Amino acid sequence: MSGNEDAVALKRRSLLLGAPALAGGLALAGPSRAGVRTNAKIVIIGAGAAGLATASRLADRLEGASITLVDRRREHLYQPGYTLVAAGLKSADYTVSTTREFVARGVTLIEEAAAEIDPVGKTVTTDQGKRLPYDFLVVATGLELNYGAIEGMDVARIGQNGMGSVYAGPEQAEATWRAMSAYADKGGVAVFGRPPTEMKCAGAPLKYAFLTDDTLRRRGNRDKAELIYNAHVKTLFSVPIVAEKVRMLYADRGIRVTHDHVLRKIDLERRIATFRTPNGDSEQRYDFINVVPPMRAPAVVRNSPLPWQTGPWAADGWAEVNRHSLRHVRFPEVFCVGDVAGVPKGKTAASVKWQVPVAVDHLIAAIQQRESKESYNGYTSCPLITRVGRAMLVEFDYNDNLVPSFPGIIAPLEELWITWIMKEVGLKPTYLAMLRGKA
Amino acid sequence: MKDLDLATLIAVFQEMLGWTLWPIIALAVLASLAFLWVVLRDRSLLSRRLVWAEICGLGGGIAAVLIMQAVTHSGFADLGGPIDWLLVLGIFAFGAIGAALGCYALFGLLAGRKQKTA
Questions:
Q1: Do A14 and B90 touch (CB under 8 A)?
Q2: Could you report the average pLDDT of every consecutive run of 10 residues in chain A (439 residues)?
Q3: How big is the A-B interface in CB pairs under 8 Å?
Q4: Contact in structure between A331 and A304 (CB atoms under 8 Å)
Q5: Catalytic: A336?
Q6: What pairs with residue A226 in β-bridges?
Q7: Beta carbons of B1 and A20 less than 8 Å apart
Q8: Rounded to an integer, what distance in angstroms lies between the CA atom of residue A5 and that of residue A52?
Q9: Between A11, A357, A438, which is nearest B4 by CB?
Q10: ipTM for the complex shown
Q11: CA B39 from chain center: how many Å?
């Protein structure tokens, strides 16, 4: 490994907390950067992970700027915790805090939803009619769960009659646990899968099949159960080496895999899921199902000039940005970070952790009329839980390379306790520190 | 600040432990200073006190491992590779050294007080 790669790995370790002691010698913090003086108006749409982290970093590096965050939701949701809630390990409130407690000093929070983006007129309009002119815009809206695209799906019934859906929110994650736990007491057929769209944390649906298998085993009911994972394409994961490992683990755990299956309809009364396959519709009866909805950009972005015009990300409205700078390709004053960015690979908190400093540096470079040397390589990571107590640390980039933060120490494709510790103890505080721009 | 530096670690531990972070650090520093003070006062490590402190340390190490397992809903069956065993040893050593050091200091302070009383 070259010196440069060593340095990159060291940087990544700051995200993967819980193992700081392993990292060896720690450098003291360097001298703080002198603030850049500017009177630029910066509007940030969305106060989720990406929006808050961006606001914190901009507030830290700029002096005199007007930084405005726009988001109607008052709660902040720690979404990486949903899996732990849906595994019965944490309560719903583990994932809920308030947006305000993470808003950096000097940043104005407007608790209204962005209704319209006009990147030509450089204005954002809120649902209350407030017009916010900007010099720079950061779009961090997150994404929209499109449950409506699944015929027969009813979000209000999550947790009932064997139907769960981890993604919908903290209460729904908890309701999913109740449904899965009830299933694990009896056994039967459990059905898993993922949508054909881009999605946040593509490892989560895989994890939930592992966790259901684990719960069944702990209850002594694994032999009464059949677990089926319906992959939407011919692989289980977009990174080939990870897909192969999961395939082997699923074989070991007795989780049957079918390919080219996309959930298009669900009968919640009769417990029948209908999948679109190359050979026509295929029905599966289930006793438990984890519904993962299709995902797309929120309407405010889809209905703006920001989405891709052609290509695989056009239909769902993902923002057309340069994948290395997160800067919009047609509107250079606009940056898009987090889930809404139309880039390959992860829509995860780890992606946010790596995207935000790059986008912020490019934005500040634009203010200073210089070129930024920062570049985002697509890094994302996923502690892929394989049972309660073990996980695999999966880290990769745009090119499907594994990019381990602890080469030679923590093997990326091994089921390890230390990775589980990181997930359960280290990840949330690191995430919260990231919101404050400190990690 | 993507780098792993001291400020990042403090920020993360502050999120993890909240207001208890600084009292915990203060307690650790006080215990260390008390240990040093007792050793300097006695001008040596007293073997009888050290043995009792080591016994306490053993308990502290075991407690640290069991507490970590309880907090993380896991157990020895979850150890999957050499790094996991090293982590267990590290947690044990952390608990053992902390408990032994603290107990030695406490015993020394109590003994000192008794001598004064006598």
A1: no
A2: 46 46 35 78 98 98 97 97 98 98 97 98 98 98 98 98 97 98 98 97 96 98 98 96 98 98 98 98 98 98 98 97 98 98 93 97 98 97 96 96 93 96 96 96
A3: 112
A4: no
A5: no
A6: A189
A7: no
A8: 29
A9: A11
A10: 0.91
A11: 18
Identify which of A96, A148, A434 has the alpha carbon closest to the alpha carbon of residue A291. Answer: A148
What type of residue is A364?
I
Contact residues on chain B for A417, CB-CB shorter than 8 A? 74, 78-80, 84, 87
Please name each of the domains of chain A with its CATH number: 12-143+297-380+430-435 (3.50.50.60), 148-295 (3.50.50.60)
- Test B15 with A432 for CB contact under 8 angstroms: yes
Give the best residue of A417, A430, A434 to mutate against chain B (max B CB count within 10 A): A417
| Structure tokens that stand for B66 in this block | 């069991």
pLDDT in tens, B59-109: 999 999 999 999 999 999 999 999 999 999 999 999 999 999 999 999 999
Beta-strand ranges (E) seen in A46-145 are: 62-63, 66-70, 75-77, 96-98, 107-110, 114-118, 123-126, 131-133, 136-139, 144-145
Domain ranges of chain B: 6-117
Which of the residues A58, A249, A382, A393 is marked catalytic?
A382
- Which token pair is A11? 């940087």
Nearest in space to A124 (alpha carbons), one of A77, A86, A81, A69: A69
Count other Cβ atoms within 10 Å, centred on residue A37.
10
Collect all residues with Cβ–Cβ distance below 8 Å to A246 and sequence separation of at least 6: A206, A236, A237, A384
* Pair A308, A155: CB distance under 8 Å: no
Q: What is the CA radius of gyration of chain B?
A: 18
Beta bridge partners of A319: A307, A341
Instruction: Tell me the pTM.
Output: 0.91
Q: What is the rounded end-to-end Cα distance, in angstroms, of chain A?
A: 25
Neighbouring residues of A214: CB distance < 8 A, sequence distance ≥ 6: A387, A388
Q: How far apart are CA A359 and CA A375, in angstroms?
A: 9
Q: Determine whether the interchain pair B80/A426 forms a contact, defined as Cβ–Cβ distance below 8 Å.
A: no
CA distance, residue A390 to nearest chain B CA (Å) = 6
